[in-house]
Amino acid sequence: MSLIKEIDYGTPVSRSEKMVTLTIDGNQVTVPEGTSIMRASMEAGIAIPKLCATDMVDAFGSCRLCLVEIEGRNGTPSSCTTPVMEGQVVHTQTGRLKSLRKGVMELYISDHPLDCLTCAANGDCELQDMAGAVGLRDVRYGQDGLNHVFKQGRNDGALNAKWMPKDESNPYFTYDPSKCIVCSRCVRACEEVQGTFALTIEGRGFNSRVSPGMHESFLGSECVSCGACVQACPTATLMEKSVIEIGQPEHSKVTTCAYCGVGCSFKAEMRGEELVRMVPYKDGKANRGHSCVKGRFAYGYAHHKDRILKPMIREKITDPWREVSWEEAYGRVASEFKRLQTQYGRNSIGGITSSRCTNEETFLVQKLIRAGFGNNNVDTCARVCHSPTGYGLNQTFGTSAGTQDFDSVEHTDVVMVIGANPTDGHPVFGSRLRKRLRQGAKLIVIDPRRIDLVRSPHIEAAHHLALRPGTNVAIMTALAHVIVTEGLQDDAFIRERCENEEFRDWVEFVSQPQYSPEAVELLTGVPAQEVRGAARLFATGGNGAIYYGLGVTEHSQGSTTVMAIANLAMVTGNIGRKGVGVNPLRGQNNVQGSCDMGSFPHELPGYRHISDPATREIYENIWGVILQDEPGLRIPNMLDAAVEGTFKGIYIQGEDILQSDPDTRHVAAGLEAMECVVVQDLFLNETANFAHVFLPGSTFLEKDGTFTNAERRINRVRKVMTPTNGYADWEVTQNLARAMGLNWNYTHPSQIMDEIAMTTPTFANVSYELLEREGSVQWPCNAKAPLGTPVMHIDHFVRGKGKFMRTEYVATDERSGPRFPLLLTTGRILSQYNVGAQTRRTENVAWHAEDRLEIHPHDAEVRGLRDGDWVKITSRAGETTLRALVTDRVTTGVVYTTFHHPTTQANVVTTDFSDWATNCPEYKVTAVQISASNGPTQWQQEYREHSEASRLIKTALDTVS
């Protein structure tokens, strides 16, 4: 194994289709018009020395090291800022150029510490490399480092020059100003790639240096620790602390991030089996070489002391855990599940697949339940997040996934973001979106909260529709009303691509006066003129793309809103080409894949209904079993049945339903009523408080497989280290299946993917060989699309013609009133992920150590609350306490919190109301009251005591004593 070296071409690629031919050092080169001479030279295999240039950012031309000579042109222009021209003759290495470059390098080196032998960047320093490339062997100038010192007075009045101190405030990287060459690469990466604008060049002349703000530390600044500046830095000025501690990596593998649904590709750079750093992979088609703080740095949980590495069992949930062998654990699960089915019936047990595990592992869990348990009682976390996406898009378009790839955003003219916060929940895509907005695309935000996209550096939304929580359907139908009644629809698209009878019926529906913006304003609180302006902009502004998240789906009318979004895309003709489409932003890394793999009780892999005999026959012939033809239980149904006494056992792989699912008391009651709860995870999570068997899980670093991201992209996950617990998750499931009598003999996840491809039409052409060759593909990937499908519904919809659906607004039963006058909505924050089991066990807690309740200053003042006060939040379901954050990001009457910390238990207050079609919980609308508090609630105290007792482990030494 070796370190994967990526070529840096110096400047970004040109998208021009016109080609230009020139001669560089006697070699003819043909490149797209607009390409820089530097990049053209690099593509010809001729490396021009450079320091300020990198293909991550636009050309800058400050270092003066990449000078070239062009026949017929005076001077020595910089190759990074000079575009190619037809017939150009370029020389990159002449006596004059050599002399100039040596002179430039002498100036750099004269003002730079020469501690190369002990520098953390030794062997990976571009300044060091370029000194060698230009042949610099000695320096004529004194090395005083004037721009990197501070002056400290002495008693005798003399000045003592010392190096400026390092800034080590950031938990993941250091800033050493003594090494800075003021190339501005970090500043430009922060601006152009990340879009945060947190860095600047401070001072003048020899006093110039990079600064994170006005005398702020990196941790105290607006820096979001995405790592773009560290990646761009050519010296050790910005350096990962892990590299300083461990040393330079010596081999690497490309794998896929296991956090959000963007699916970023990374190089895991290693020394032996120790991970040195994660570097975003430039050829990753989802992230294009960018990253966020979670994927780039927050991998330390993999070796956290809390990780459980041995199987454990206990008789009762009040007993301490007892470590056992894998064989004993498998035997206990198999015997208990068989006993329960004998005693209570075949349908008395079931399972939940993981959206954090691979496609292959998820496929095996649903196969175990269907072929081993003999029922369809299988569900996944998509039930509580994006199940309305599957239903709504299937009804309108005929398929249950987003329509575009992430590159499509580069071609959009109008972006509508509804119920999503991309800069926090999907930050790498959020950065790409912000870049497009800075280039001139218009933005419509539909959200009760002022998310960062509404107003941030160089970006301001054209319209922010700050609607009342629970009124999504009303606002979307009002937008459609404007488009139809003002004649702004795309008649040609509708006539050719959509079912006309349904369209006429839908037009009659949305044209009714009660759906006008003026009438809907009473429900939503959004001024009618804002709704009309947004509708006109989306319908007439060019390519229109809709991106939505859990603020759409986690409602009692989640499926209806998804259909309304699809209607809006169809009526404006914004489907089937680049720059448009309906794009659900998936929350977890493989939530799309877990749905694809048949994790719902009514569907087999590929979204085919369990009642279809032909589909069942495919699996029955391969698996050698007869499958049930009726859908099984959803997660809420399993819990209800458990409380009723008919559902007795569950196998939960990599999900924490106690913390993530609604109405925590009901979830706890359901789990407590079961006789055998099996949890497979990295840590003793909150659900494990009620478990009888714990099977240690493996991290994404310890397994092979695939993830499918929000754009349907199937990405390889590659094993970079031996599983600390001994087994990858797919091996644990296979061994459990064997214990239950199934003859499974997979030796590698590629064989599982072969079975998926053999049985699932949308994956028919997918194989590990294809993924190795292409890097990644987007399903459908089959005979019709052998290399995948970046954009769906190009000529026709999957269902044939698009179907407009009536979207009648039905107010949720969860309403505010005198007892509960405020509406609570929930969401995520950049530094934390989902229930926080991973990120809370990393240094990311430096940014978000607790959940806070955002409350408007008016609502806080009425209740006598100040910023930082402890407050009690009470709903019809329960109560909890947390600290207040007084802010005008939320409107009056609305409060907001995150759900990353179990001590908060935000879902204690969420109700059991859910989407009418899919049972997706209504997390986003909970009527609450807020009051001052002087301590935890009784529920929190009882929960903390139970949680601590449930984590007691009796070791072998305890047993002997």
What does this structure look like?
There is one protein chain. The protein is of the alpha/beta class. It contains 30 helices and 39 strands. Strands 17-16-27-28-29-14-15-39 form an 8-stranded mixed beta sheet. A 6-stranded mixed β-barrel has the order 33-37-34-36-35-38. It has a 5-stranded parallel beta sheet with strand order 22-19-18-23-24. Helix 10 packs parallel to helix 19 (558-571), helix 13 packs parallel to helix 19 and helix 16 (517-524) crosses helix 17. The chain is globular. The chain starts with 18 loop residues before the first strand and ends with a helix. This is Formate dehydrogenase subunit alpha. Residues 18-96 form the 2Fe-2S ferredoxin-type domain. Residues 96-135 form the 4Fe-4S His(Cys)3-ligated-type domain.
